[in-house]
Design a protein that fits this description.
alpha+beta, 4-stranded mixed β-sheet, 2 helices, 44% strand, 4 strands
Length: 70
């Protein structure tokens, strides 16, 4: 998840909607797009969620596992 304006700025376009559960248990629906992710020299691709403008970018477990982190 990253601020929606930053994802749009780098050319990622929304292609669908997904539900996201917050730490407090609330569930909200957000748009998502697809992006190439490079981390520690490894490359993968996956969903990125267009979050609120005040969110700090978050990388999820799936992306981390895709580049070999366990």
């Amino acid at each position: 998840m990253a601020p929606a304006s930053e994802l749009a700025r780098i050319g990622i376009e929304p292609i669908g909607m997904t539900d996201v559960q917050a730490p407090d248990g609330t569930v909200r629906e957000y748009p998502f797009g697809l992006a190439r992710v490079e981390l520690m020299g490894e490359v993968t691709a996956g969903r990125v969620i267009f979050g609120p403008e005040d969110i700090d970018p978050i990388i999820g477990t799936t992306a981390l596992e895709s580049v070999g982190m366990r």
